[in-house]
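Predicting holo structure, NAP bound.
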Amino acid sequence: MKVGFIGTGSMGSLLLEALIDSGSLAPNQVYASNRTPEKVIRLQQRHPGLHVCTSNAETAHNSDLIFLCVKPLQFKAILDEIGSTLRPDQMVISITSPVQIHHLESALCCKVAKIIPSVAHRVQSGVCLCMYGSRIKEEDRQLFEHLLSPISKPILIDESFVRITSDLSSCGPAFLSFFLDQWINAAVETTGMDRGELTWIAGEMLLGTGKLLTQGGFTPLELQKRVTVPGGITAEALALLDSSLTGVFHRLIATTHGKYKEDLEKCDAQFGGPGAD
Ligand SMILES: NC(=O)c1ccc[n+]([C@@H]2O[C@H](COP(=O)([O-])OP(=O)(O)OC[C@H]3O[C@@H](n4cnc5c(N)ncnc54)[C@H](OP(=O)(O)O)[C@@H]3O)[C@@H](O)[C@H]2O)c1
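Done. Tokens:
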């Protein structure tokens, strides 16, 4: 299988390198192009054998699967650029939430899919949200998820839930890191303890909490109860968090969904209206 990457910025290069480092792809199976070619050349230097393509059409022509790793409003121009080189047996995969499966199917003759990856794939962790177009057959899906499995847990989701699930799986590492950063800053300021040591303790705590939720049979509420002694220190601090954070997650969801709606309207306009073919 030959796999193309159009756009090797933050997420494109992360996916590409995670797939190579996990052994899921050999460098010589990879074709890549980027608006600023130096980024692909640097990847080739790190992974000898990787093919640097001088145009997106060259990447598309040479690949069975093509990951489009650009920002939502850059999609239409790239689809116009590669559309005529694509064949029906190829598969194009968007990695961005506002570009809809129907946008891709209306613009391309090939199979299409959408995934929302996570930065956690760099360490072979995290859920990869997968959505498939009508031209994808069961064997295409199996082959594709076989490719992703060494770096992630691929799960099928309904496209209408893409934003809320992306908030958790894809934005979640940033949200939780924000929380930890504030917490560690306060700990350093209050106690003078070493930031690196506190960060390591926090990371191990997060890893263990994740395992308790995924393998240990706990729900988040059960975990709070398991740690809390009535009238104890954790209980007092949880009461503080509860009163301080009232409504914050509803506002967070309203914010991510508001931005998504804006981007979706811009994509609809580029692709000729909602649901247009
Ligand atoms: N970062 C994440 O954790 C994450 C997670 C899930 C999904 N995503 C999605 O992934 C998409 C990309 O995000 P990102 O963080 O990787 O952005 P990014 O770092 O800005 O990468 C985008 C890349 O696309 C390249 N590009 C732009 N126009 C191009 C063109 N016409 N032809 C070829 N390459 C082109 C850019 O090239 P230049 O070098 O010239 O700028 C840049 O390297 C976004 O839609 C985002 O929603 C990101």
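The chain has a mean pLDDT of 96.
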